# Entry
Amino acid sequence: SAVISQKPSRDICQRGTSLTIQCQVDSQVTMMFWYRQQPGQSLTLIATANQGSEATYESGFVIDKFPISRPNLTFSTLTVSNMSPEDSSIYLCSVDRGGRSEQFFGPGTRLTVL
Amino acid sequence: QKEVEQNSGPLSVPEGAIASLNCTYSDRVSQSFFWYRQYSGKSPELIMSIYSNGDKEDGRFTAQLNKASQYVSLLIRDSQPSDSATYLCAVTDTGRRALTFGSGTRLQVQP
# Structure
């Protein structure tokens, strides 16, 4: 597995503001992903964070709302822009070191938008 | 659109019993299958992966895969109260790598 950290662990934000979530891995990884878990729901993929190029977004998620950076093989950020209460969720990053597609998750960021 | 289906539960079993969790998937090109355990307020933890038909055992856990019937299951032997959690089934295919999750089954092990 890998040691994955996320910052912040939780935040309470006002409507219309933006929050940037950081994901740091203790070693280089092939792929990084961002998921959202809404209250009482399962995980939904937001995007694949590609190193050195634009992220690949899933249907229903757009770059203007969820800009993603991945400047190197150990770090990525997800920004939740112009937030509304519907964005209240847990945001999770995961990493895939290659091979058999096993993914490991960070501890998550619990976001509440008022 | 890939779909992964799980019974939401709760599945309630007595301590020491076998818990059986099931998952079906719609996409025949799915190649890799995973079970994650998620405790309340925590992130998912990978407990089993399986890639070929048959059974795979790891301690008290056994994953079973049947690609022809498009289902994957997880058996937990000698269930303990600490096994009480939500179990998420996830699948992916060789080209995509990102996971598609089921809605999860909540397991309750009664002492």
Summary: The mean pLDDT of chain B is 93. DSSP finds no helices and eleven strands in chain B. The longest strand of chain B covers residues 85-92. The CA atoms of residues 11 and 110 of chain B lie 10 Å apart.
